[in-house]
Amino acid sequence: MGAHLSISGGLSKTIEEAFRLGLSTIQFFSRNPRSLRSAKRSEPISIPFNIFFLHGPYLLNLASYNEIYDLSKKALLEDLLWGESLGATGIVVHPGSHKGSGVRNGISRIVMALEEIINKSNTRCKIILENTSGAGAQLGASPEEFKAIIDSISDKTRLGICIDTCHLFSAGFDIRNTDGIRETFDRWFSLLDTSYLILFHANDSKGKLGSRLDRHTHIGEGEIGEEGFKSLFNFEIFRTRPIIIETPKNPPGSDEKNIYKLRELGSLL
Ligand SMILES: [Zn+2]
């Protein structure tokens, strides 16, 4: 169980915070999340977790067709190599937005970008594609789109999948109870081998089912609710993957509370 933590005070502060929270894994931004150009790196330090993740910047768009495309490829390659030097398990990125050019075109842009980055590097650090809520022209809200991407990549060992519970729910997958979760996982993993699934992001959802609204909230306080998270723990696939919270940091003490709540719902206390 882990949390997305800030690295604004330096990585050693991040690790202190992780220990204070009693976490066994962490995730942090690979650079300023709102910039593709500047990447000020702290000194590479040893991270005392076997499994941990970077998260790519929000502006990254591997499906774009303007100057953002080249900047995105460059930024992801740099961040992937930085992740490798730190020993990260993977870097989590959103597949991208086709911005009106169409799903097929968007997917082929993503595939081209990933192939290029994979060919220019040789990392154990995986590129982990995260499911999205599918707002606007955002790709990656359905298992079919993930399959279309993965099927076209030559070295599939370099890729992974991250499933975010909030995005899943706002994309229309009803994970509020065991039956809904079973149906959801059956749909995703009849198309995708479970070996691709590297981690979960556990976030409750402010948006309603199918609202396409990407708004994370505290565990048990959103539309998924305690019953949903409790039911997720009935599934081996959920219990056997790292779980990272990306829930609001306010009020202070929220990370402690959300981690505790998840452990409680999973009978892990
Ligand atoms: Zn997420």
Please provide a written account of the structure.
It is a single chain. This protein has 269 residues and is an alpha/beta fold. The chain has a single domain (2-38, 47-265), classed as TIM Barrel, CATH 3.20.20.150. The protein has helices spanning 11-20, 67-86, 103-119, 143-151, 165-170, 178-191, 225-232, 236-239, 254-265; strands at 2-4, 25-29, 53-55, 90-93, 96-97, 126-130, 138-139, 159-164, 197-202, 204-205, 216-217, 243-245. The strands form three sheets. The protein has an eight-stranded parallel barrel with strand order 1-2-3-4-6-8-9-12. Strands 5-7 form a two-stranded antiparallel sheet. Helix 2 packs across helix 3 and helix 3 (103-119) crosses helix 4. It is globular, with a radius of gyration of 17 Å. Zinc ion binds next to loops. Zinc ion is lined by residues 130, 164, 201, 246.
